[in-house]
TrEMBL record:
Keywords: ANK repeat, Membrane, Repeat, Transmembrane, Transmembrane helix. The keyword Repeat applies. InterPro entries: Ankyrin_rpt-contain_sf (IPR036770), PGG_dom (IPR026961). This is PGG domain-containing protein. It is a multi-pass membrane protein. It comes from the Eukaryota. The chain crosses the membrane at residues 363-382, 402-427, 439-463, 469-490.
Amino acid sequence: MERHPELIKGVDKEGSTIVHSWIKSDKEWLFKFILERKWKDQFVKLVDVKDYNYQNNPFHVAATTTHKATNQIVPLLVEAYKKNKLIWSVDDIDKLPWFEKNKENEGPLHLALHNKREDLGLYILSLLRDYEIMDELLDYYEPEHSTLFLAIQNNCSEVAKFILGKLDKRSRTKYLKDSSTGWNILHLATSLTDEEFGTWLVNEAPEFITEQDNNNQSPWDTAYETAIRAFIDHNPRAFRYLCIEKKDSSLHHIKLTSSIDCEDFLKIPYMKDLINLQDSQGVTPLHKTIQDNDLFLTETLLSIDKINYDIKDDEDNSAIDLLVQKCADNQAWEEMCQRIGFNPRIKTSYFQRRTNLLEVRNSLFVVAALLATITFTAGFTLPGGLNQESGEALLAKKVAFLVFLMSNTLDMCTSMLVLICLVWSMVQDSSNSLLLIDRSMVLLLVAFYSTILAFMTGVYVVIYPKVLWAAIIIIIMCSLIGVSANRTLLYKVLLIPSPKKKQNQRDPMYLLELGKAFPCCVGSSSQKVE
């Protein structure tokens, strides 16, 4: 410094001076050393210099540091500035470096609160001159409520108490309330971890307890929701069983303000198990959110793979029916459905919207191609054979043969149509692809019925003149298979319990192996308890 004193005034490419750099370290002795030497005046002139990028002066930098030496360094700079600049006492607040704003409209006080440097924040507030009022400082930092809100959000209770203690209760409302959202300081109090501080805020401003924000939520409502959330988090499994038992859930009633809040709420353990729970009127959470015009929760629920939007309530309305009507009446709902790729107007019979279409398409391709191959071959290997001279079918005038020919042709056409639908589904959006694949399943069932009919009539026409009883048995067997292709009937047949299973259900030893009690044991155990 003796040889190159001009370096004191140097700045780097970002506009930072040596004061910016030194204050990031915990070397208090550096500041004491230079403030006691002949270069003091040059050094002090750098205290209010701002860098190029963020317009931060050394006090802004000090507020972002984590070392404790800052608490000693900042007072050294303040006192040196006061001694060097004798007219500092008549400067406005915006001229004092410890109150100045940076590019982000933040003062050193705000940065100290962001970094939970409450001790530094209190010191900066103590630098207010006797004739200056707290209102003037809060008005300087726009919006006016930002400083107090920041102190509360970061649990800087002493700073918040200091600010509130300096405000006139008759004119402090604009500092305690965010006019853009309607939130007041008691809305913030519900998320505090310091119970004593939260209680103090309620006692300090009780008039705000029932005042609602722009979403009609009061601090009382927010506190109630926070308590419910704590109750759920305490034992989510027990809460799930309680909801199932009472046929009601928090998803039927909750009203959140953003999609992020909805996603976070559904991350609660076992909460997703309740997304299809019906209440006493058969209404699911998805029914309720659509009826309540809750766009955020509806979008979140529709994005869940396990959601069932085809469940009908007691009035025979499904959630998808309500959504179609809502989209027709409200453009915002239509845009939401487009955003998530969900078309409520598409009605499907076999596949849900969350189905893995690639796997289904590949499976249907194989089945349809196999049926097309079989029917193509059957078209040239006709029952009864061909006339060797003319090439005409020998049984062409038989009614059964004509039925065989028509059903085989129908089988061929529907199989090819399935393949065409599947090919086009590869170049459509997800909604149209789903519709094409679902309709392919309908056509494939027609092809199955046609295959059975073709086989049945083809066999019948060649054997009924010789063995009628065999032809009749074949017709009966094929007819039963055709009838059982109906999905509902097939489920009922497959769910019929076997005689062995019925016997096991009455067998006490079998029940004991499953860990189930039976009447004699229940009675004996009851007597023992008594």
